[in-house]
Write a structure and sequence with these properties.
Radius of gyration: 24 Å
Shape: elongated
Number of strands: 21
Helix content: 25-40%
CATH class of the largest domain: Alpha Beta
CATH superfamily of the largest domain: FAD/NAD(P)-binding domain
CATH topology of the largest domain: FAD/NAD(P)-binding domain
Number of helices: 14
CATH architecture of the largest domain: 3-Layer(bba) Sandwich
């Protein structure tokens, strides 16, 4: 991954957010009495059986599924092109029990049930287990569908582990297609989905911003108020509206209220999602009394070293220490698990955290500073701190020298005595770190979005705060919540959820009874 300098991306709060009461799941509230939430307009400017909001991975999957089922489909997209944040991703997708998994890995007997069990444990009792099972059960067919529209699978790898997950549940499930796998290569899949949606007859309105759902107390969601070319338009959805917009990635106000780690990511770290990701779909859902689920956590990773991003990539020979010089996390766990711990430590202590290495980094040639020249250049440009001794490094990091020395002593003693990490159950780079000089990098999160969204059931129907289905309203992808916990469980999860929930939403909306 390319080295990016630290920068500060401040997401604009969506208009009107301060006026919206943020209902919590399980607490009954009344539907807001506003023109955006009730009433059918006298005239409509456009109509379709199914109206999809967003032309990213989830929206295109929904459009394809609905159109393939015979519904007329209209997709509204704020941007001037398809793709959304999915194009910024690597385009990788998780699934278990596929032909590609059997071809490219040793996991010949993996199942969607094992996949779901792994996710459920990582969710730490916060997720809807039935929703996770439903998504994992249909993930393999989405892999086959993508292959049918031109995607060629070339490899499958796995997440790095999570120490508390039951042994045997981790497996290589991350599918990589030809031309994909790296940041910015998700566009290959988006182009294939867009072409398929067009072939099936879906229509698109680009530069068209969905602003409010049109709600009838008798019929539920009946359409969308949108802005196109500076004019307001009313779009009728005869059978359903599918919310396929983003999370609250760049929305500072909502992040501060609902997702502290995302607030940290967009105000102090690096967010690389589309600038249009401000939670519009979540705000529209809240206007019609939709419940929200699993708000909290992020897709944060180390974009400099790639630590923990793949189980087939070398991990850095290092330990992580907090602002007090103490070790605090398993350094080869999957990336968002580590980043949650980094966020917590930095918030708890009000100090940065660091990845600390010895000369083994250069001897092994691992990571962006795997040569003496690269390491010294990084020291010169301020990317790395250096110390000929741990005491000197501690002084440069402004951490207690005795604590830093003790952290290294504890690590080295554990390796000497047992050959294992007795504190945090690390699996890789189980070597002593005692070769000066020492180097340290300040941990920086690169953010690919916020977790949490509208509560949905296994039919991708949106649920209100009384636990009832909101008629004719569906959601998927990062516009929805409930299918993960408070950290991102690994690469390929969001695209899997988008593909599956988008497809389910499209199928369900296409056979829904019209409200007219």
């Amino acid at each position: 991954m390319a080295v990016l300098s630290r920068r500060n991306l401040l997401g604009a709060a969506a208009a009107g957010a301060t006026a919206i009461s943020l209902g919590l799941a399980g607490c009954k509230t009344e539907t807001p009495a506003s023109s955006s939430a009730v009433g059918i307009p006298e005239t409509w400017d456009a109509e379709a059986d199914v109206v999809v909001l967003g032309a990213g991975g989830t929206g295109l999957a929904a459009a394809c599924a609905a159109a393939d089922a015979g519904a007329s489909v209209l997709v509204l997209e704020i941007d001037d092109k398809h793709g959304g944040t999915t194009t910024i991703s690597g385009g990788v997708i998780q699934a278990a029990g596929t032909r590609a998994q059997k071809e490219f890995t040793e996991f010949q007997d993996d199942t969607p049930e094992n996949h779901a069990a792994c996710y459920i444990e990582q969710a730490e009792h916060l997720a809807d287990e039935e929703l996770i099972k439903a998504i994992c059960s249909r993930a393999p067919e989405r892999i086959d569908w993508l292959e049918s529209i031109g995607i060629k699978w070339v490899s499958v790898y796995g997440n790095c582990h999570v120490p508390y997950v039951t042994e045997g549940l981790h497996a290589d499930r991350i599918h990589v297609y030809e031309g994909g796998g790296g940041i910015g290569e998700g566009g290959v899949m988006m182009d294939a989905e867009f072409a398929e949606a067009q072939r099936l007859g879906a229509e698109f309105k680009f530069n068209c911003k969905a602003e409010h759902l049109i709600f009838s107390p008798d019929n539920g969601v009946v359409g969308v108020q949108a802005s196109e070319g500076g004019s307001a338009i009313n779009v009728k959805a005869k059978q359903g509206v599918i919310m396929a917009l983003s999370g609250i990635d760049h929305n500072q106000q909502l992040a501060q209220q609902l997702n502290p780690q995302q607030f940290w990511s967009i105000t102090e770290q690096i967010c690389i999602t589309s600038d249009f990701c401000v939670g519009d779909g979540i705000l529209m859902g809240l206007e019609v009394n939709a419940a929200i689920a699993t708000m909290g956590g992020t897709i944060d990773f180390d974009g400099v070293t790639g630590q923990g991003t793949a189980n087939n990539a070398p991990q850095m020979p290092c330990i992580f220490v907090n602002g007090n010089g103490r070790r605090f996390v398993c350094e080869d766990a999957t990336y968002a698990y580590m980043m949650r711990a980094i966020f917590q430590q930095e918030r708890q202590l009000g100090k940065p955290t660091f990845m600390v290495m010895d000369q083994s980094m250069i001897e092994q040639g691992v990571g962006p500073w795997g040569t003496a020249e690269a390491a010294e250049a990084a020291v010169a440009n301020g990317m790395l701190f250096k110390g000929e001794t741990l005491e000197e490094l501690a002084q440069n990091l402004d951490v207690p020298a005795a604590n830093l020395a003790d952290a290294f002593r504890s690590w080295n003693n554990s390796i000497d005595a047992t050959g294992t990490d007795i504190e945090f159950e690390r699996n890789t780079q189980l070597i002593k770190l005692d070769k000066p000089p020492y180097y340290a990098n300040r941990n920086t999160a690169m953010n690919l979005g916020a977790l949490g969204g509208l509560m949905v059931n296994t039919n991708a129907e949106v649920i209100d705060n009384a636990g009832n289905v909101i008629p004719h309203l569906y959601a998927g992808g990062m516009n929805s919540g409930g299918w993960y916990g408070n950290y991102y469980p690994g690469s390929g999860t969001s695209l899997m959820g988008g593909l599956v929930l988008g497809s389910i939403a499209g199928e369900q909306a296409a056979v829904a009874q019209t409200w007219e």
